[in-house]
């Protein structure tokens, strides 16, 4: 956790190195730590915006107000960064299709507010419904990690195949896509320095992965991590290094590992 002062210092250092820092503060899901702070410091607000222990209630206007305020605390640190991008989250969001109408409104409101502060926003794909896509602001970038949300149950897969956006849906709607294939581009930091695990990830990413290979549900209702989408011109590949149970991994070890990553273009 960085203070505003340290975050500004980090961004200034990155600017000098020609590196862009992209903040990723997820809402409405994965907000457990922020909800804990709200409960401690602002219990009335906490009760008003809490959906569950990990989720802000995206159907309420007050939640949008709270999220805007949190993002505004970030904005100042990035004021002098030449290019500003913000990952909003919106992945693994609970609720049915009716509730997700409110999710679209939630995302759009946050996007428009952050646009005013010079940010291009990005959201994850798995909670986006096909019928809601035309209503989603067209300048939002989509990180496509998995149509299934990594579910494996037949009922879930069939439902998601029918309702959740596919890569062809996004292409037809002329949306910008970043490939974040959850099989090919994700690695857990706790495995770093395990030679076999390191080598498998690095080799698969370099030799087997291509920017037009996506994680989607096929016509048989099966999850496939090598679905070829030949019509796609992506705006890049997102490699994710997950920090669960990795407190013993040094910064230098992570830096050395990152230098070994070679992503096909």
TrEMBL record:
Keyword Hydrolase found: yes
Coiled coil: none
Domain spans labelled Glycoside hydrolase family 20 catalytic: 2-165
Protein family: Belongs to the glycosyl hydrolase 20 family.
PANTHER family the UniProt entry points to: BETA-N-ACETYLHEXOSAMINIDASE, PUTATIVE (AFU_ORTHOLOGUE AFUA_2G00640)-RELATED
Protein keywords: Hydrolase
Source organism superkingdom: Bacteria
One Pfam family per UniProt: Glyco_hydro_20
Organism: Levilactobacillus koreensis
The protein, known as: N-acetyl-beta-hexosaminidase
Gene Ontology biological process: carbohydrate metabolic process
GO molecular function: beta-N-acetylhexosaminidase activity
Catalytic residues in the record: 92
């Amino acid at each position: 956790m960085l203070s505003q002062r340290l975050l500004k210092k980090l961004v200034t250092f990155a600017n000098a190195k020609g590196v862009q820092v992209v903040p990723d503060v997820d809402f409405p899901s994965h907000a457990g730590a922020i909800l804990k702070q709200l409960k401690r410091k602002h219990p009335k607000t906490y009760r008003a915006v809490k959906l569950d222990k990990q989720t802000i209630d995206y159907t309420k206007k007050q939640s949008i107000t709270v999220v805007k305020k949190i993002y505004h605390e970030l904005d100042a640190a990035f004021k002098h960064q030449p290019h500003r991008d913000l990952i909003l989250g919106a992945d693994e969001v609970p609720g049915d299709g009716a509730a997700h109408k409110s999710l679209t409104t939630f995302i759009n409101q946050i996007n428009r507010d952050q646009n005013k502060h010079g940010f291009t926003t990005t959201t994850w794909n798995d909670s986006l419904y096909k019928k809601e896509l035309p209503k989603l602001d067209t300048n939002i970038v989509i990180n496509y990690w998995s149509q299934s949300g990594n579910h494996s149950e037949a009922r879930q897969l069939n439902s998601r195949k029918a309702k959740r956006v596919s890569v062809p849906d996004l292409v037809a709607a002329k949306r910008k896509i970043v490939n974040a294939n959850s099989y090919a581009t994700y690695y857990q930091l706790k495995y770093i320095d395990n030679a076999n695990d390191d080598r498998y990830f690095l080799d698969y990413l370099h030799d087997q992965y291509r920017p037009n290979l996506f994680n989607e549900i096929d016509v048989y209702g099966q999850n496939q991590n090598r679905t070829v989408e030949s019509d796609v011109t992506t705006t890049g590949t997102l490699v994710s290094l997950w920090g669960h149970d990795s407190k013993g991994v040094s910064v230098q070890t992570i830096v050395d590992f990152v230098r070994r990553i070679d992503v096909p273009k």
